[in-house]
Amino acid sequence: MSDPAAINSTVNSPLRQYPLERTRNFGICAHIDAGKTTTTERILFYTGLIHKIGDVDDGNTVTDWMEQEKERGITITSAAVTSFWNQKKDEGLYKNFEGIPHRINIIDTPGHVDFTAEVERSMRVLDGAVAVFCGVAGVQPQSETVWRQATKYKVPRIAFVNKMDRTGANFDNALADMRKKLGAYAFPIFLNIGAEEKFAGVIDVVNQKAIIWGEGDLTNEGLKYEVTEIPAAHKDRAEAALAELIDAVSNKDDLIAELILEEKPISVPVLKAAIRRLTCLIELVPVLCGTAFKKKGVQVLIDAVIDYLPSPLDIPPAQGMVPDTEESVAVPPDDNSKFCSLAFKLWTDPYAGKLVFFRVYSGQLKKGDSIYNPRTRKRERVSRLMVIQGSERKDVDSVYSGDIAALVGLRNITTGDTLCNEDFDIALEPPTFPEPVISMAIEPKTKADQDKMSQGLQRLAEEDPTFKCFTNEETGQLIIAGMGELHLEIIRDRLKREFSVEADAGAPQIAYRETITKSAEGEGKFIRQSGGRGQYGHAVVDVEPNEKGKGVEILNKVVGGTIPKEYIPAVMNGIAEAIKSGVYAGFQVIDIKVTVKDGSFHEVDSNELAFKMAGIFALKDAFAQAGPILLEPIMKVEATTPDEYQGDILGDINRRRGMIQGVDAKNGQTVLTAQVPLAEMFGYATAIRSLSKGRASYSMEPLHFEQVPNSVLTTVMDAAKKRPAARS
Length: 728
What we know:
Layout lengths: L22 E8 L5 H11 L20 H6 L6 E7 L16 E7 L7 H10 L2 E7 L6 H12 L4 E6 L8 H11 L4 E3 L1 E4 L7 E4 L4 E5 L11 E4 L3 H19 L3 H8 L6 H13 L4 E5 L8 H11 L9 E4 L6 E4 L8 E10 L3 E10 L1 E3 L3 E4 L4 E4 L3 E5 L2 E5 L1 E3 L3 E5 L9 E3 L6 E2 L9 E7 L5 H14 L4 E4 L6 E5 L2 H15 L3 E3 L3 E2 L2 E4 L3 E9 L6 E11 L7 E4 L11 H14 L10 E9 L7 H18 L2 E15 L3 H10 L3 E8 L2 E9 L6 H8 L5 E11 L2 H13 L6
Parallel strand pairs: 1-3, 1-4, 4-5, 5-11, 6-11, 33-34
Antiparallel strand pairs: 2-3, 7-8, 8-9, 9-10, 12-13, 12-24, 14-15, 14-23, 15-22, 16-21, 17-18, 19-20, 19-22, 25-27, 25-28, 25-29, 26-27, 30-35, 31-32, 32-34, 35-37, 35-38, 36-37
Helix pairs in contact: 6-7, 10-11, 12-13
């Protein structure tokens, strides 16, 4: 890193207070209850943003500021916080330039699977991530999900094994879990000194030093720590870890490999630079350990974020597409380039109004500037800019490349919109979100609340891409759909708190899917003659199963003008409409290929409506002959239980049509892994507590869709006919 005084001005604006090299945008992500929010809270304490540490159980942390988060002790929405960290020379561990602190933008993400959209959109705009793992449980199901999301968006990461003070904590087991379950090229840069109640400190593998924490007030004062020589009992382990780390780095870094071949010494700065290079390239995962709750290991974690996670300059520039073309354009992280940013989250603030969270990729934005939205082709003036500190908002005059901030008062913005200069017409890749898996009918308790409820639901749907609301055309009922029971429960709770609307809800319904098992041809005719001009449309289609996960394809292979060109889109629209509303049982169709190949028309009576109806009829005819089947969402379930309840919980999973995938012993408990249909998981939280006298826990995540077995198909089909509101 160059001297801050000589930073290249083509990258950093002279008005910028914190250079890009000293900016870190990272997220804290993990399985539920691994300690993400507690870790974030301790980081904010040590970086000086807060002077009194909050606690999740007390409901007073900075990033869990929603009422529902405080009451339930879980993170529901991702929270962005900006803080600063100045590494000190006198700590003897890390030597950086004094005078200019590092600006760190942290996003604390939820761990519950129902709020996976928050992790998805956060990963899209982050440069790095800290993956937190429980020292007792190791890699858990949602750990795997967030790891996949980080891989999908090419986010470099470091790992923090938390809760090393807990009974059953084992650093080596957690490390082995990462390598086995995540396929991570993970190597410790810190080792634990002791574990459980004897956890006293860590060994800095790179510097070959020990860091021992003293005792102190866990709520208001930082624990003092001492950098010492490694205790004799841990010396061999520390040297072996360093040798293993150097060997691992040399396998992927040519400079270190060359030094080893030439038998030259590898200095600490050279090794650290190599670890940083590989981490930024997502070829190595440095692993640390500690206990965030007891404030041990947090300072070295922040130092590791600075030392090993990338600044915006250390990763490839963002890529955007010129609208309506295939042309790709790089967006360099340069304050003096044209402005370009991505809106990744919308939130309605009770005081400030509609907030648009955005990540600046290039250029700078000031109050009073105009920004352009390539999707809507409209410009808007920026009246107010904010930096977010959890629930607090700090107004700023300008933001620069690499910054994460919020805009106030913009209209017609959706998650994933690019915001840029009008003369830099470009669209960045938006985050992608899973489809809802559960739905229910909802209605206000009083007719007077009807409009208020509609407005509230519309606003909540704008904020949350995995929440949908729509009216069932057959029943007139309003349907809400989301990622799980808890998700929809929170939506109803927010309706009551934020919009003063109490709502009654029906039983949750599963979002089944339809598909076919073989190819078939179908014909559809729509003919109406009622005196005068009639209606005539005729279409012939082929249907065939598509590759699993490939979605729906609708192709036009009409030749010879059997269907005039102007009517072909109407046929395809009819097919698309039928696919969305369902053909077999009223559920959305997935993974099929439909080819429009033939038809006929009438010179006078043909029109778009007639051909649209012909497309619908043709698809229904083909579908009936193509071996239609119903698919149901399957969940990956992991239940952790004391050994004595293993048999009861296994039996209960079997009764729920579950397939046991694994039974493992871990730290005196049994971990059951199973695949269970979502339809059978309602009320499971109560059931597992009852079976284990409150001592077992579970988590689940969506896995895939599978065919509904014949033994339950009739029940599902009958229920679908009686409750059309379940369709989605």
